[in-house]
Amino acid sequence: MEPISISQPSSLQELTVAAICGNLAQTICEEMGSQLKLRHDITLPLNIATRILNFLIKSLNLDPMQEQDKSDVLLKFFKLFTDASRCTLNKIALYKAPISDDIVEVMIDLAKSHSLTEIDLSSSSDTKADYRANSAPYNHSLFLMRFLIDVCGKTLKSLILTNTSFINSIQQISSLSGKKAKVLGQDQYLASDATIEDMPFVFSVNNSPKLENLDVSSPFTGWFIGIDPEAPPLLRSLSAGGYSEKRLNSSIKEILRNIAFGEPDYPVPAEMPATIAYPKSERKMYKYRFFSRLGSNKDCFEKFVKYCKVREYIEEDDILEEKREQSVVPGNFILHHLNILSMKETLVRLSLFGTYLSLKDLEGTVFQLKNLVHLDLGWPKHQGRDMTTRFRPGGITVWQILDTFPRLRSLDVSGTPWAQVLYEEAEIEDDGRVLKMDREREPLEFLGLWGTKTAKLKNIHLLADRISGEGSLEQLVLCLELYLHSSKVISNVMSNISEFLEETMSYERPEYLLGLIVQIIKRNRYNSTMLFECVACVYYLLQICAKSLDRFKKRSVIEALVMIIENNISTGYVQSQLLRNSMILFSAFQLPQDVMFDFDHIISLGLRIFQEMRDTSEIGMVAGSLCNALVCTVEMDVKSIVRKHNFLEIMINTIKQRLQEKNADEVLETAWSALWNLTDETPKNSEDVIGSGGLDLFIQCYKEFPQSNELHRNMTGMIGNISEVGYLRHHLAKKEYVEIYCALAIVPGSGIEVGYNASGILSNLLVDKSDILKDFDRDVLRGKIRESVLSWDVDVARNINYRTFAPLLAVLECRGEPEAHLWVIWALQNLCDRDGKYVNMIIKEGGVSRVTEIRDTTDDDVLKALASKIVVKCDEKAAVSSI
Fold first, then answer.
1. Greatest CA separation found in the chain?
2. Listed residue (487, 464, 462, 466) closest to 476, CA to CA
3. Which of 610, 556, 554, 555 is nearest to 583 (CA)?
4. 437 in helix, strand or coil?
5. Max avg pLDDT among 183-197, 223-237, 768-782
6. Is the pLDDT confidence value at 459 over 90?
7. Could you tell me which of 781, 769, 847, 866 has the C-alpha nearest to residue 820?
8. % helix / strand / coil in the chain, to the nearest 5?
9. Which of 478, 522, 732, 829 lies 20 to 30 angstroms, CA to CA, from 842?
């Protein structure tokens, strides 16, 4: 298997396509009712149109089990490109698409309109493809391949059907047609007159003259596909991996038996079963034009039976079943169907990864393809040798394979005894095992050794330039490239990569690896085990490269994390831990800036989890912290956006619940912290907090939890924000509130932050120009502020951030309140010592003149000394800037 190419959104063209797809209505489209239409003055060239369509499809994150709305959007995107006079396509790439009759119809329309050269239906399925009530549990996805070859087979170069499943269509055709269905009266429920004779399809040079690449890797697609050995297509690449069974399962064997020998008579049962589908009249067949293409398939059917040796295989399988002779080793049925030897002159690439192979298959078929350049015979499961030999016969060595194929440049023998034997035969030296070369050889370009110890040999590089295995992080990353479609392998690989990253915390290509993992997440969105490993790897990689990621790569990672969160909201232990780990990863980004493209969606998810799982303390705390971080800015209008998500109500209700439970946990602290951020420089939110009873909750929490220092810090921080709003201060000047501010201003052993916040509240009340403190002894309040400030170390490092000094400088503008000034000047001096940006902020916001005035007029030695230091720092900064 050759490494796949992982594209990154870095070129100007890719960035342009991303911008267009994110703003269709403002760029290339106009809405016509519920449909999209290209603008009359827009013409899209081949490269751009193809990229736009496939970008739009990829952005949907399709899934066959999804709701109908995404299928409808997919149809809109397809129909946008059906007019070939306005745009040109050459490739359609679907992944996990729900293939309904509507999808079949529009894909045929696209194929008729454009000269398609590549069609990719990887992991697409007809299962639950159409949710609408008037649709029968049957569609024509099985015939899509046949229709496409009929329409664009003359231009098609690549057809990729990796893991594509038409099992629903297969079952419906086999159960609702033929003699049995007629006896049961069920044949009338078919959506068309299709029977099992319409199911097989045979590729030939006549119907696919330019086809070079065919991928039918999956345990489904190859059942009814064959190659015409008398006129084979000129394939250069064939992938038929995943056919791991030595024998067919009973249901498929029955269908193939009916194809090969005809359907047996079916006796009338004593009691007729209930009908199982909608009447065909309700299907509204007339609206699908592709029904006209369901012509006779007799010629293809006869070729399939004859050339794919279906009768011979069924008879051979019957003998094995009857005799149950373990000594008789069957060949793989997929090799019967594909007639690989008929293409030995053209085939240069063959992948049979995970496909069972007998010795007869290898010696009689595979080893006869002397022109192969790339050969994949790997086995996906990380198993011991005894288990692997059931699917890969012994007695074959890597040296024999290399000698058999003189042109070979890429070989995958992962998980096979043929690779493991190199390790077992290696020479043992003091510092490890060394590969025992049988002779000097030119190194391959690639050698797959995953699932064996061989990749760890010291000199294994003598066999290939690039090696996949477990010997190094680079080998493991190569495994990700190779086995992206194989969840069996990827889960183990991710576990190994996680261990490497945890140990080293370094990698030369972190952004590239991150891109691979994002793809894996999107392909395995419901595989919790694998997602755990992916999230762990993302964590380590973000530690390495988060700051260097461009916004498109950041967006890609964030979208993957959101997908994990959305698909795993549950109270189950596994899902809860996955939620927790995924939400924690958001801390590696700049919030909320990096998530503004999907802010509403992300904040709603965070609030939902916080609300539903706040009693699961850790999950609730993490979700609350995420919500908190999302509103922790005033540069963007997020504090007003969150009103429609009931942000304030959820936090208030959480506080009430914790009070009722008498539980001062981290969730309660997080809720108050969220209100602190929500009210920062946002008077409307401060009003809402007061209107929601936030001040009463402040008193209740203080009285109920008198020793909770972190809680007091968050509560006084929020009250401090309200105190900065002049017209709201009178709400804070009640006796019972002010007594608490005074008490919190001086709490021995509590650190600085609670006292700082409480002193700030008192300072703002003192400088208010109204008479809100007429019932208080102002000197007592001033004394509390002074005593508190003088107890602090001005050189202490603090976890605080100011965007502007406007609220602090406003306090300085009020004359006659030196204690309030002392609080502000102490804060400015402390901040200026920590970070030069704060010196610039004082200068920019005009604070130097006011600080200088205080220095020159105050009789307070402490205040004068602090102010003097600030002025000196500002003067020094200004002098440097003027040079």
1. 112
2. 466
3. 610
4. coil
5. 223-237
6. no
7. 781
8. 55, 5, 35
9. 732
Sign of CA dihedral 56, 60, 65, 71: negative
pLDDT in tens, 155-172: 999 999 988 888 878 887
Strand 432-434, strand 427-429: pairing: antiparallel
Helix (H, G, I), strand (E, B) or coil at 79: helix
C-alpha to C-alpha distance for 290 and 106, rounded to whole angstroms:
10
Q: Strands 35-38 and 91-95: what pairing?
A: unpaired
- Three-state DSSP at 98 gives strand
* Separation in Å, CA 317 to CA 248, 302, 321, 322, 710: 8, 21, 6, 9, 73
Considering only CA atoms, which of 99, 112, 52, 108 is closest in space to residue 80? 52
Nearest to 265 by CA among 180, 171, 172, 173: 180
Residue of higher predicted confidence among 534 and 634: 534
* pLDDT for 477 beyond 80: yes
Q: How far apart are CA 220 and CA 166, in angstroms?
A: 7
Cα separation of 829 and 838, whole Å? Answer: 9
Determine the pLDDT at residue 309: 86
Distance CA 410, CA 1 (A): 8
3-class DSSP state of 30: strand
Q: Which residues pair with 464 in a beta bridge?
A: 444
Tokens 């994390």 belong to 561
What is the distance between the alpha carbons of residues 595 and 597, in angstroms, rounded to a whole number?
A: 5
Whether 266 contacts 183, CB under 8 Å: yes
How many other C-beta atoms are found inside a 10 Å radius of the C-beta of residue 294? 16
The DSSP bridge pattern shows strands 201-203 and 118-122 to be unpaired
805: DSSP letter:
-
Tell me the C-alpha distance between 862 and 864, whole Å: 5
Strand segments, DSSP code E, in 316-406 are: 349-351, 374-376
Q: pLDDT for 393-435, tens place per residue?
A: 878 889 899 999 999 999 999 888 888 888 888 788 777 788 8
- The pair phi, psi for residue 446, each rounded to 5°, is -150, 145
β-sheet bridge partners, residue 351: 239, 376
Please state, in angstroms and rounded to a whole number, the distance separating the CA atoms of residues 649 and 673: 14
**pLDDT the model gives residue 816:** 83
Distance CA 329, CA 358 (A): 7
Query: pLDDT tens digit string along 216-234?
Result: 988 777 888 899 999 999 9
Q: Inform me whether the pLDDT recorded for 213 exceeds 60.
A: yes
Residue with tokens 């035969």: 425
Sheet order of strands, 444-448 included: 91-95, 118-122, 158-160, 213-215, 237-239, 349-351, 374-376, 410-412, 444-448, 464-468
431 Cβ contact list (under 8 Å, min separation 6): 458
Do residues 863 and 817 make contact, with C-beta atoms less than 8 angstroms apart?
no
For residue 138 the two structure tokens come to 């049957």
Name the one residue in this structure whose structure tokens are 């950041």: 554
Start-end of H helices in 662-777 = 666-679, 683-691, 694-704, 709-723, 735-745, 753-766
E strands, 222-263, are: 225-227, 237-239
Q: How far apart are CA 598 and CA 281, in angstroms?
A: 44
The domain locations on the chain are: 12-199, 385-471, 747-883
Res 821 pLDDT > 90? yes
